[in-house]
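Sequence in, structure out.
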Amino acid sequence: MTDRRAFIGRVAGGLLASPLVTFAQQHANPPRIGILGSTYGTAWDAFRRVLRELGYVEGRNITIEWRWAEGKADRFPELATELVELKVDLIVTSSTQAALAAKQATSAIPIVMAISSYPEKMGLAESLARPSGNITGFSNVAPELIGKRLELLKAIAPKVSRVAVLWNPVSRIETYGFREMLAGAAVVGVEIQTIEVRTPDDYPAAFATLTASRADALHAFGNPVSFKHPQLIADFALRSLLPSSYDEKLFVDAGGLLSYGPSFIDLFQRAAGYVDKILKGAKPGDLPIQQPTKFEFVINSKTAKALGLTVPSSLLVLADEVIQ
């Protein structure tokens, strides 16, 4: 088994210093940061902690304006406009959809993407090494990441031959991800069956289709819909005796078999570092969009036992967390 660290994306280039004067030299008032995301989570705690370590204390020398879409991506444009009208000095986003809305709302206010998927293909940046314009940040996509999830699934459940994939084909991000999944499936030696889920109302029909299919495993793409229903998906997979893989740990906490993906905590911590650099004068367009360098592999041992699976000791050693 290839060590998971072999799939760590290389950080694109070194950070380029800017001769600009600092924020404090240009403004009398403390900087005002706008946050644009779906909902508050532990990753934001990590972001705030690093800001404090860098000397930024909320209410004293920095102000944060929070705006949440609550899983409704169509609200991002309105919320982004609100932040621009508040004349915030910098916007931090936590999804590709939020970043696109912020980019549409302003070409002047610096934007730091704590998370983004395929930023070049989505039109957020000219290149990872030099994004240009008013936007920079971090990508949660790394080479062979999706194929690695299938490899881990097959290693724990060797008899898997057909994986049902819950996805939203309207999403450009998931379309790119699905292409990578097909490539990974060919290497691992499994078939892929697609099942569409565009809204929460689609789950009953999707589960009925999956039950009637010949699929013997399940993978769910992480998106605004699935992130709000991890328990529903994990419960169905376990009830149907389907080994399941995911992008995010929250699905494994809910009873899914395994997850493998970038550490959101790490990405948000690094985003705080970029906020600091920009407030001190760096141009966002000169700061490279960096790929993930830390990944988390989580196994639910209790679920494995319920499915009659024995997790190889080699994987238990590699896992960052094993849920008993």
